[in-house]
Design a protein that fits this description.
Elements: H1 3-18, H2 22-34, E1 42-46, H3 52-60, E2 65-70, H4 73-82, E3 90-94, E4 107-111, H5 119-131, E5 138-144, H6 150-166, H7 171-184, H8 190-199, E6 203-211, E7 214-220
Parallel strand pairs: 1-2, 1-4, 2-3, 4-5
Antiparallel strand pairs: 5-7, 6-7
Helix pairs in contact: 1-4, 6-7
Length: about 220
């Protein structure tokens, strides 16, 4: 197996084992976007590495065009391979939100990404997303979010590891992942997430998904 194929396979296998209801999350994302994105709409995908989101949306909406943004060149290569059947409608950009086209976009998604963004960059990232959206356009946002007192952090990260183990992840690997996430991820409580979305200019913030330590919201520009 080539290095590229190995990365692609590892990415495809990882999130479903760690994110409860991942397939349902993607289908709900599609439905929430489709409520307002027109048939010939343009969608911004922040955190597009791997291409799962892009592939799923592009396969369901033949008229939509996509701009995908991710800081990892290797993961963008994986996304490029995953979306080869839709290459004429997908543009990929290496970097953070600042490299995204100005739009305006008819909708945006950011799945399983915000917990990697430092807290002091979150508000500006949301504000830049908001500026690129047409008035009333939806943003679908989902990532790790739970109460951030020490006891809750310990409980929810242990539950995260236990869920992964229940899906076939090696216990030692799951424990190493739990320890790494406690050190490296940038997490907020759901209440703080919603306050920040409102501060960035989004309205109608609604929780639509909750799976163990993950939460998902839809909000409107």
């Amino acid at each position: 197996m080539s290095d590229f194929a190995h990365v692609a396979q590892r990415y495809a296998e990882g999130p479903p084992r760690q994110v409860p209801g991942l397939d349902g999350l993607h289908r709900m994302t599609d439905l929430l976007l489709a409520e307002r994105v027109p048939e010939a709409g343009r969608v911004l995908v922040l955190g597009a590495g791997g291409g799962m989101e892009l592939r799923n949306l592009a396969s369901r909406h033949a008229g939509w065009r996509f701009d995908g943004v991710d800081p990892s060149a290797q993961m963008l290569d994986t996304a490029r391979g995953a979306t080869v059947a839709h290459a004429d409608r997908v543009q990929l950009h290496e970097g953070t939100i600042g490299v995204a086209p100005d739009g305006p976009f008819d909708g945006a998604t950011c799945l399983l990404t915000f917990h990697f963004i430092p807290l002091d960059e979150r508000l500006e990232t949301l504000a830049q997303l908001r500026r690129r959206l047409r008035p009333g356009a939806p943003l679908v946002l989902a990532h790790m979010s739970f109460p951030q007192d020490p006891q809750s952090r310990d409980i929810w990260m242990r539950r995260h590891a236990a869920f992964a183990v229940s899906n076939g992840v090696d216990p030692a690997h799951a424990e190493n992942g739990r320890q790494a996430m406690l050190k490296r991820l940038h997490l907020l409580s759901p209440q703080d997430e919603e306050r920040m979305m409102a501060e960035a200019g989004f309205s109608g913030v609604s929780l639509f998904y909750a799976g163990f330590d993950f939460r998902g919201w839809v909000a409107y520009a």
